[in-house]
Amino acid sequence: MSKKGAIARIIAWAAVLAFVAFTAVFGLGGSGNMNDITLGLDLKGGVSITYEAVGDPTAQEMEDAKNKTEKRVLSRSTEAQVYLEGSNRIAVDIPGATDANEILQQLGSPGTLIFCKDSADPEGTKVIDGNDVADAQPMMSQNQTTKAYEYTVSLTLTEEGRQKFSDATNELYPTKAPIYIIYDNEVISAPRVQTHIDSLTCSITGMADYDAASDLASSIRIGALPVELTELRSTVVGARLGQNAVQTSLLAGAIGLILIFIFMIFYYRLPGAVASFGLLFYTALVIVLISTFKEQITLTLPGIAGIILGIGMAVDANCIIFARIREEIGLGRSVDESIEAGFSKAFSAILDGNVTTLIAAAVLYFLGSGTVRGFAQTLALGIVVSMFTALVVVRSLLRALYALGFQDTKWYGETKNVRQINFMANRRICYLASTAVIVIGIVFMVIHSIGGYALNYSLDFVGGASTSVTFNENRSIEQLTEEVQPVISEITGDNDIQMTPVAGSNEVIIRTRTLSVDERQAMEEKLVELFNVDKSLIATENISATVSNEMRRSAILAIVVAAVFMLIYVWIRFKNLSFGTASVIPLIHDVLVLLAFYAVLRWSVSNTFIACMLTIVGYSINATIVVFDRIRENMQLLKTSRADVVNQSICQTLTRSINTSLTTLIMVVVLYILGVTSIREFALPLIVGIICGCYSSVCIAGCLWYDIDRLMAKRRNAKK
Questions:
Q1: Is the CATH number 3.40.228.10 carried by domain 113-224?
Q2: Are 133 and 220 in contact (CB under 8 A)?
């Protein structure tokens, strides 16, 4: 490459960064602006709607209605929250929304659903009702003969509904009579019965277009509730964290990035400066993409966790590459050859690490719900962008700078002799130490579960009380946090308190753990005494958990399935089941160790708990893959024992493991220092998890592979 070409390349990349950064700050064509990012309730606020059941439904019917409403609402926003309020109300919080009437119109009014033979006498000729419908989804297919697109609604029935539907269609299909679908006393469709249907699934054909099919499917789903709901109230609520919390989080992010830049430049010299450019590019591009896809991505604290993990992955890729370049220079190669070899040899580790994490993100998105899906979205986005910046942007700029004359090894550094540490000799000590921590955690969970909960579950998990208070003046979230929260905390003995102001009024919603009669009375008296609140304007209702059992089950299922898929991928890529098994066990180890910290230190298990666990899963598997990739390579190169290969591989990747963990920790620690209480509760477990992930990848993963592979070899030999 000529010097003119190198200068042109550098100018081109600088121009691209300037364009992306400009778009991130000011926007382009109505999108891309960081201010356009859809924020969750905790960061921006949104709309809160309360529905009330008609009649006197049972607790089970209300729980079923809540679960079905949740599915309907989550189709609009993955970060929405649905919970029971009192014995006959369902509350819905939708982040980022500002128009309650618009939301109500989009969600529809949850009414009754009936399939009947005669629209004039629906109850007398009822075939099935909402209790018999399991699901309804719009479908699109292409006719193989006419090549035209056809739009249908795929209807899924319960077993009881199948039998009723079978009897009705057997009666109606000879005359092709219609079945009327009545939603909230209005006929919304009247498909004719074309054949006898005796299965759990069937299709409603003849839809004009996909929108028509989608509307009908939505009406059927929302109408398939065990109780009839009516709107009780709808309000626009403010952010739970407040504008200052968001600003301090942004400030923490900026300071964290600057500190990472300083570290990268100090340690990696010229490549570190180029990596800093790449991280700037990464940050700006992620902002642009999140704001561009604002209809699909709602950013909350778990989403921020995904971005932080993405930054860690971006730094990690650079650390792997630069370590390789230094090794090649140390072996006597020229800088030019070392740059090419560095990127070439680092590619497999970067690819495998990122693909395994992408697999986890994909599984979490498709099987998870709520904040789990939001985390998966930002994580996947960050991984793709980080690979692009490391393998394309950084590589292109390094080649250009080399062509400009930065060819001396002093600009890059070199690694001649890797300090040898005998990790294999001490592996049993590490195994015992990890086991001891996990066992201690289990013991504490058992002790705490006697007469209570194994973990310190927040109201997100176990529900609590929602108190509506109307103050004499408008109070910002900052004022509420500084003045009101300490008063409530003193009464409840708990810092897990959520305070949300209602926009356009002096009303504030205070959510706490379930209050006793004495505690409720004490809180009312304090509010009257200290803030001159009218006691008649204080109302308290018990609420259910915002993290439903279904969401918890889906998160656990997603993690298990993701682990299985990652094991299979590693098994195929490394052509050895031992690698796959040894990659998943450290992942489980990190989760259990973090659980032990939650149990022993009684950290609050809140809505961000799942995101913390998922972050550690992604971080842990990536760190482990880097070590395994070096073991795989050294098994072909080194003519020594496998124990020596493992030691050598761990030592060769040790600097990368420490540096990647350190740079990620910088970001999270700054977030912890500058953040408000809720952000600190989120950042602290991440700090422990990152340290644990580094420990497991260095001290456990490689050694564990050695022991598992040796055990499998013994079993194979025993069978011969």
A1: no
A2: yes
